[in-house]
Amino acid sequence: MSKRVLTTESGAPVADNQNSATAGVGGPLLLQDQHLLEKLARFNRERIPERVVHARGSGAYGYFEVTDDVTGYTKANFLGEVGKRTETFIRFSTVADSLGGADAVRDPRGFALKFYTEEGNYDLVGNNTPVFFIKDPIKFPDFIHSQKRDPFTGKQEPDNVWDFWAHAPEATHQITWLMGDRGIPASYRHMNGYGSHTYQWTNEAGEAFFVKYHFKTNQGIRSLSADQAAELVGKDANSHQTDLLQAIERGVNPSWTLYVQVMPAAEAADYRFNPFDLTKVWPHADYPLQRVGRLVLDRNPENVFAEVEQAAFSPNNFVPGIGPSPDKMLQGRLFAYADAHRYRLGVNHTLLPVNAPKATVAQNYGRDGLMATRNGSRYDKNYEPNSYQGPAQTDAALSAPLAIHGWTGTHEAPQHTKDDDFFQAGELYRLMSEDEKGRLIANIAGGLSQVSREDVIEKNIAHFAAADTDYGKRVAEAVRALRED
Ligand code: HEM
User: Fold this and answer.
1) Cα–Cα distances in angstroms (integers) from residue 37 to residues 19, 40, 42, in the given order
2) 391: exposed, middle or buried (C-beta count within 10 Å: 0-12, 13-18, 19+)?
3) 58 DSSP β-pair partners
4) Which intervals of the chain are annotated as region Disordered (predicted)?
5) 53 C-alpha to center of ligand 1: Å?
6) What residue owns the CA closest to ligand 1's atom 9?
7) Where are the alpha helices (DSSP H) in 82-194?
């Protein structure tokens, strides 16, 4: 079989892909060698900015299938019928390290899911943890700076990591989670996913509910100890990518069962925890899990750069029946992501195949910008309203309105009766077996003992002690023992 012809980017045949054109044998290169110039220039431009967080990740296509009727809570069309399937794309990720970082590290994992629904793409951009370190987006850049590489040493510094946490008592719950047994998942397949934030669902009658999403892995939870992870990183730094890719190639399609906790909107004001505080969970005894459907991953992307690196998820991509809650962190994220995409991928990133709607067509009056490939024809007006056949608004709100009251200002999050920074961290600690507690303490002490300042260590220990006296005492003892070594 004859091979296809190698061409330049403009399609002209290439005569020689091994030798540059020179002035005479052994002479200097010729500027007229278009193929050489194009190859070198394109190579220089291969990289785009990596994601400022969650830079390292893996993606897969699949589908979501509804197994239970939730039409009493949401009018979302893709959840409207038992048995209905919607195509999905997911990107899993680690958070703190750069693109070349290792997979098997102690870090939350991203769980970013795109549903290509008939009413537009719905993005649920969550993590493998039900809570988060902070509850106000204004702290996010400082938080991330403290966890990523230090500008002077060029590496992650326990001094910075723990100094930030010393000033963020609300992080105690998430730190307890992260330093515990689930802190290093064995693979992306063996962990749960959570929407983490509270979202709002609205049904056909206009009734509003607050919901939390839980994707439970059907592969079972599997995690690594610190030692197992260190060994694995040495053997295969890309262990999560290897695992996901190979499982799907083998036809072992990973799946998750989606459950939601549902709170009628009227109950939010008097709930014992602030339901919009991302550092808190809703105990299942208060709001039990209700099954919705299953997510199955069955297809690997053909090209990592095109489909995974260029994937863009935004928490403000909602569909009718689903909307934001007043959670301040979520509200901050509604801005941050699409802004990041415009910087990282450009204003027309929604035209890329992985980001474009698949089950419907985007129709609007946004035009031009770099790389505009779908920009309208002679029949399409680029303004609205118009007297022609251009798309028009529906006058139907996507979700129910949120009630507001009070004054503008830089307010701290409202406190409900059981709200403090430590109660739920203590509950999580007390739930652990004696062995788990031992490993948790060892993990915390391993990091905290490397901090150079005693006052930073003390402040962190005070947070653990406020969660549970025994917890604080044991961390203090373990840190002291390591520092005396
Ligand atoms: C105010 C707080 C936060 C801000 C400002 C923020 C901002 C960002 C930004 C700018 C990116 C990179 C987006 C890109 O370049 O494509 C990102 C990625 C991501 N964030 Fe956040 N983030 C916040 C909190 C969270 C929380 C609470 C979660 C989970 C519950 C989360 C989950 C993710 C995930 C999964 C990704 C990777 C998405 C992907 O795979 O492309 N983030 N975040």
Assistant:
1) 13, 5, 8
2) middle
3) 92
4) 1-20
5) 7
6) 337
7) 140-147, 158-166, 172-179
Classify domain 137-167+420-485 by CATH number. Answer: 1.20.1370.60
One digit per residue, the tens of pLDDT, for the chain of length 485 reads 789 999 999 999 999 999 999 999 999 999 999 999 999 999 999 999 999 999 999 999 999 999 999 999 999 999 999 999 999 999 999 999 999 999 999 999 999 999 999 999 999 999 999 999 999 999 999 999 999 999 999 999 999 999 999 999 999 999 999 999 999 999 999 999 999 999 999 999 999 999 999 999 999 999 999 999 999 999 999 999 999 999 999 999 999 999 999 999 999 999 999 999 999 999 999 999 999 999 999 999 999 999 999 999 999 999 999 999 999 999 999 999 999 999 999 999 999 999 999 999 999 999 999 999 999 999 999 999 999 999 999 999 999 999 888 999 999 988 898 889 999 999 999 999 999 999 999 999 999 999 999 999 999 999 999 999 999 999 999 999 999 87
The span from the CA of 401 to the CA of 381, in Å, is: 32
Looking at residue 74, the DSSP 8-state letter turns out to be -
Ligand 1 touching residue 333 (CB < 6 A): yes
Task: Output the CA–CA distances (angstroms, integers) from residue 117 to 62, 217, 300, in the order listed.
Answer: 13, 23, 20
Structure tokens at 143: 């938080």
CATH superfamily of 57-133+186-351: Catalase core domain (2.40.180.10)
The residue behind tokens 């100094």 is: 163
Q: What is the dihedral of CA 296, 302, 306, 308, to 10 degrees?
A: 30
Instruction: For residues 311 and 44, give the distance between their C-alpha atoms in angstroms, rounded to a whole number.
Output: 22
Domain boundaries, the chain: 57-133+186-351, 137-167+420-485
Q: Is 112 in the pocket of ligand 1 (CB under 6 A)?
A: yes
**What distance in Å separates the CA atoms of residue 226 and residue 45, rounded to the nearest whole number?**
38
Phi, psi of 208 (to 5 degrees): -105, 145
Partnered with residue 258 across adjacent β-strands are: 215, 293
What are the Cα distances from residue 286, in Å, to 34, 281, 331, 421? 68, 10, 25, 20
For the stretch 208-218, what's the b/e string if a residue is b when 16 or more beta carbons lie within 10 angstroms of its beta carbon? bbbbbbbbbbe
Compute the distance between CA of residue 388 and CA of residue 376 in angstroms, rounded to an integer.
Answer: 14
Q: Indicate if 127 belongs to the active site.
A: yes
405 is known as an active-site residue: no
* Separation of CA 314 and ligand 1 centre (Å): 8
Ligand 1 atom closest to the Cα of residue 311 is 41
